[in-house]
Amino acid sequence: MTAEYFNFLSLIGVAFFAISGALLGHDKDIGGFGVVVVGSVTALGGGTLRDILLNQPVFWIANPDYLYATYGAIFVTVMFIRHLPDLSNYYMLLVDAIGMAIFNVVGIEKALIEGTTMVVALTMGMTTGIFGGLIRDVICREVPLVMREELYSTACFAGGLTYAALFLLDVPYLWCIIGSLLVTVFLRLGALHFGWQPNLFRKRTPKIRD
Question: N or C: which end of the chain has fewer CB within 10 A?
Fold first, then answer.
């Protein structure tokens, strides 16, 4: 992936996560500057942790365009909410799913650029995609989405595996990205609409003997 495409994808991911943070802040009646704080930590948290772990300059310090994208997305969201105050929580979950999918790919790409193995890159993708939302939910006193039974981190991991599989098959980068994004968003929206759950520790119903 070229630097231009990487930066563009990162900016889009930052904007979507900033919107999700601002929407949840509104839903929790957080007013004033608090919405900016929630939106900012959601947008910047995952990438910040990623860069610290990779021993790289923190992305929004190295390139202030990410701050402009964050604050701009929050401002537009607040203006939108003023005209449509009764938004469903579904919209927050939708933009969160898209932001997570994008940041998952960005985390994988950045880790691979730094020469990590694919396993490390997949882990870094999940970290980038999930951590900002985790902080957002904790600040807003919500049970973090990643801790709930519905598909969340599993969807992120499945998207990463899709990227890895296409990458190992020498599929062009663009299709690796598109495949990962589609799988992550599809599974996440499926969980929202149909209640899909991984049920890793589902107990077996004991058979009753006659």
Answer: C
Spatial CA neighbour of 77 closest among 31, 138, 23: 23
Encode pLDDT of 141-173 as tens digits: 888 888 776 678 889 999 999 999 999 999 998
65-111 pLDDT, tens digit per residue, is: 999 999 999 999 988 888 776 766 788 888 999 999 999 999 999 99
Q: How far apart are the two ends of the chain, measured CA to CA in Å? A: 63
**3-class SS string, 114-169:** CCCCHHHHHHHHHHHHHHHHHHHHHHCCCCCHHHCCCCCHHHHHHHHHHHHHHHHC
DSSP secondary structure letter of residue 208: P
Pairwise CA distance, residues 69 & 60, whole Å: 10
**Range list of H helices, the chain:** 3-27, 33-53, 59-62, 65-83, 89-113, 118-139, 153-168, 173-194
